[in-house]
Amino acid sequence: MKSSTVHVPAPQAGSAGAASASRRAFLQKIGLASLLTGLAGFGLQSLRSLIPNVLYESPQKFKIGLPSLLADGVTFLEGRRLYVVKEGKSFHAISGACTHLGCTVKYTKLQQPKQVDINGEKKQITAEFHCPCHGSKFYDDGTNYAGPAPTPLHWYKLSVAPDDGQLIVDLGDEVERNFRLTV
Q: The whole model's pTM is what?
């Protein structure tokens, strides 16, 4: 008898291995992408937590009291670094922050009034603002004349509240140095 052998071809290892390798590479890429996306989300959340949702600044517009209760002359509002000047029924507000580096200027009455020329106009000055940090000096209208301060002190808009008649200062609204509110 003749023995017959049937030759059965063996499965090719290359095609099954290739499918397995490409599946493995695909899953590795998906896993890596998921990991990077998760890390990016965590990083963004961490950075966002450093930015507060609430602004802890004092409001730019605020009431300072009834005009009749303010003393004649200069009143300093320390918490706001603001000088409010009352001359009879006329009011104006000058910033107490030096325009050089923001130090609080001090109001100083002069022993004798002096005549000065401000922008071609002769004025009599009875007081000055002095910066204790770097020596800047300002006339009583806020005009800078000595020291490193580059610009005059800021003037802010005053108005009267319609509901209770108090003076309102708006630190977000600068006005010219000739602004006066008369009540």
A: 0.67
DSSP β-bridge partners for residue 107: 129
Q: For residue 106, give Cα distances in angstroms to 5, 19, 20, 86.
A: 114, 83, 81, 17
In tens, the pLDDT along 119-170 reads 788 888 889 999 999 999 999 888 999 989 999 999 999 999 999 889 999 9
Task: Compute, in degrees rounded to 10, the torsion defined by CA atoms 141, 142, 145, 151.
Answer: -140
Taking CA 67 as the corner, what is the angle to CA 61 and CA 71, rounded to the nearest 5 degrees? 110
Enter the DSSP assignment of 59. Answer: P
- Distances in Å between the alpha carbon of 145 and those of 82, 134, 141? 20, 13, 11
DSSP state of 31: H
Q: Which helix (H) or strand (E) segment is 102 a member of? A: none
CB 183 within 8 A of CB 149: no
